[in-house]
Amino acid sequence: MIKGNVEVPGYLAEQFNTPLGHPSGKLKVLERSIERVYRLINEALKGIDRPDWEVDDGRYCSPYDTEPYGFERCGNNFIIYVRERGQKKAVAIFHGPSLAAEYFVWLVSGGEREIDWSQFLEMEG
Fold it and tell me: Looking at the whole model, is its pTM more than 0.85?
């Protein structure tokens, strides 16, 4: 992945450059927590075929793959994009997975679906 710089106010740069963490302080728990978010998105969007969507570069996705909305991690941040003519176009960037996931589900479902945060809690331990 090619990374570049974007000019933003200092307070925003500080926030987005802060390493992701988990209350437990353990890296493996952080990775499981992010995987849980991916699974929660998949559960929330089950049965929605249009618009197309994909999470984590296609690990979770709708049955079709025609210019989907996408959700992926880039370092300490999470990007929501739409693919147009094979190119990813950023729609939003978030520093944490939870708010990003909620926005992604809202965007793809047209506001009809929400994440059930009570699922897969065992992945947080």
Answer: yes
In this structure, which amino acid lies at residue 112? E
Q: Cα separation of 37 and 75, whole Å?
A: 16
Q: Could you tell me which of 65, 53, 77, 62 has the C-alpha nearest to residue 1? A: 77
Angle at CA of residue 46, ends 105 and 22, nearest 5°: 50
Cβ–Cβ < 8 Å for 115, 100? no
Short-list 41, 46, 51, CA closest to 83: 51
pLDDT digits (tens, 9 = 90+) for 62-117: 988 788 999 999 988 999 999 998 899 999 999 999 999 999 999 999 999 999 99
Q: Where are the chain's structural domains?
A: 10-124
What is the phi/psi pair of residue 95, to 5°? -90, -20
